[in-house]
Automatic annotation (TrEMBL):
Occurrences of domain Transcription initiation factor TFIID subunit (ranges): 38-111
Any one GO molecular function term: DNA binding
Family: Belongs to the TAF12 family.
Gene Ontology biological process terms in this record: RNA polymerase II preinitiation complex assembly
Top-level taxonomic group: Eukaryota
Subcellular location: Nucleus
Gene source species: Clunio marinus
Protein name: Transcription initiation factor TFIID subunit 12
Keywords, comma-separated and alphabetical: Nucleus, Transcription, Transcription regulation
Coiled coil: none
Annotated region (Disordered), positions in chain: 1-42
A single Gene Ontology CC term: transcription factor TFIID complex
């Protein structure tokens, strides 16, 4: 089990990008796993947003690097949460679960994974109506009654 726990190492121990060597990151990520976002797929995504938009080569490289770093950050953070959960005896299964990823994304990026529920109910936050807004809507209603 100790060997498996070392697999869930902290980002500073397992992440080449944290060491500041970006060339090592590109080499490790391409040799260890498949590429998550390719240049053709990135161009396809850009065409979905704006068919006339064309990205520069440098911009494409930068966006691909940001995407890779984001995924690596989420994976490392989720592993740390799973490691903490396992060490505290909540579950002895040495696996990263969806709830680990959910927790990391929600706490660090304020993102929510749709389609995966949790045990907790999330209350809908109703925005407070300001006095200025009430006055504007009253003026609009008054103007509409005239016509």
């Amino acid at each position: 089990m100790d060997t498996e726990m070392n697999d869930l190492a902290s980002p500073s121990q397992s992440s080449p990008s944290m060491t500041g060597n970006s060339n090592q990151t590109k080499t490790n990520s391409s040799s260890e796993s498949s590429v998550l976002l390719t240049k053709p797929r990135l161009q396809e995504l850009v065409r979905e947003v704006d068919p006339n938009e064309q990205l520069d080569e440098e911009v494409e490289d930068c966006l691909l690097q940001i995407a890779d770093e984001f995924v690596e950050n989420v994976i490392n953070g989720s592993c740390l949460i799973a490691k903490h959960r396992i060490q505290n005896g909540s579950n002895r299964d040495n696996k990263v679960e969806v709830k680990d990823v959910q927790l990391f994304l929600e706490r660090n990026w304020n993102l929510w994974i749709p389609g995966f529920g949790t045990e907790e109910l999330r209350p809908y936050k109703r925005t407070q109506v300001t006095e200025a807004h009430k006055q504007r809507t009253a003026l609009i209603r008054k103007a509409l009654k005239k016509y």
